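User: Could you go from structure to sequence for me? I need the amino acid at each position, not a summary. Structure tokens:
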């Protein structure tokens, strides 16, 4: 099994520098980091008294919630598409 080469990208999230290592493209890693940074700033504006660890957890929980909702919607649409495709094969 061949392992994909790892990419190292320096990013800044909520004022902290991180080196992210992953198999994704540098552009993808930067996009993810920018998304997390934006979300942290968004939640910080709504909850200015939160310390950084609590802000990070709140951000992670909200992103996970968004992900799970999208995953459920994807599964629902995939099932709907499969049913429509199966229905057309019966014709």
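Assistant: Here is the amino acid at each position, in order:
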């Amino acid at each position: 099994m061949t392992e994909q080469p790892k990419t190292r990208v320096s990013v800044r999230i909520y004022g902290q520098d991180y080196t992210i290592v992953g198999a994704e493209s540098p552009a993808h890693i930067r996009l993810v980091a920018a998304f997390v940074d934006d979300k942290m700033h968004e939640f910080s504006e709504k909850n200015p008294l939160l310390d950084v660890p609590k802000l990070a957890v709140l951000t992670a929980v909200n992103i996970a919630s968004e992900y799970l909702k999208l995953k459920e919607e994807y599964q629902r649409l995939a099932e709907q598409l499969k049913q429509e495709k199966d229905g057309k094969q019966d014709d």
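One structural detail worth keeping in mind: The longest strand covers residues 7-13.
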